[in-house]
Specification:
The chain is about 40% helix and about 25% strand. With about 300 residues, it is α/β, with parallel strands linked by helices. Helix 1 crosses helix 8 and helix 8 runs antiparallel to helix 9. It contains 10 helices and 13 strands. It has a single domain, classed as 3-Layer(aba) Sandwich (UDP-N-acetylmuramoyl-L-alanine:D-glutamate ligase), CATH 3.40.1190. The protein has a 9-stranded mixed beta sheet with strand order 5-4-1-8-9-10-11-12-13, with helices on both faces. A 4-stranded mixed beta sheet has the order 3-2-6-7.
Length: about 300
Amino acid sequence: MKIVAIGEILWDVFPDGERLGGAPLNFAAHAARLGHEVILVSAVGDDPRGYQALREMKRLGLTTDWIRTVFDMPTGEVTVRLDEAGQPHFTIHRPAAYDRVALDQGTLGRLAAARPDWIAFGTLHQMEETVRAATRAIFEACGSARRFYDVNLRPGSYTPELVKELLAAADAVKLSEAEAAEVAAMAGLESGSPEAFCAAGAERFGWKAACVTRGAAGSVVWIEGRAAEAQGYRVEVADAVGAGDAYAAAFLHGLEAGWPAAQVADFANRVGALVASRPGAIPKWSLEELEQLGR
């Protein structure tokens, strides 16, 4: 599977240090670990964090060919505070270099020539009109690609109008249980259960697949009218940063493979739990470890 992801590259600054992150980058790294080719479209600053980010991307097996270096904005930064349960709370510092994504016709032609199967995007990055324009240009250039929207609502980094626009652009969506409740209120959708929410969203926006994550309780996956709930895996949580992005990569992996909803949900739960059990958004993990966790 070949994926074009557009989104933020930033550094997650924890009390004990900083680690490379940004939901689209985390997603790209986990998708690559699952054997997929990912083109990440973003930007970094002309600063030490920017150059370190490019080095880290290469170490993770990701191409940096589509990352722009800008000279008038710093590389993205987020301050992360973990609560007692290991759940993250973010303070996003903007403007940042990732807001300066720019695509010329030559770049769009190269993306089209890559023939991606999926285009992945989130909410935070799309707050900038120039980014939305670039994303629409990618949609147009890669017209046969399906579109995956990982909602990822962050305080101060979305509007109801933007979220509804992105929901309508997607073929598949991922939300947390709290996000599903908020989106249901925004869009006037059924919210009695994750299954009902996904079905209502599909009818309203045309989704082919959707998933709602429920933390330690697992998740619900809905694929073309069939829903399945899978229980979570018990792990000692180091921090939950990046676990949802890993789940997203696993969800798309199973969706592309044509698995039934129950199998997709169980596999994605395992990937998310394994990442949550380790510090940082992109810890090392292997398929062998996933198999052991599933036993």
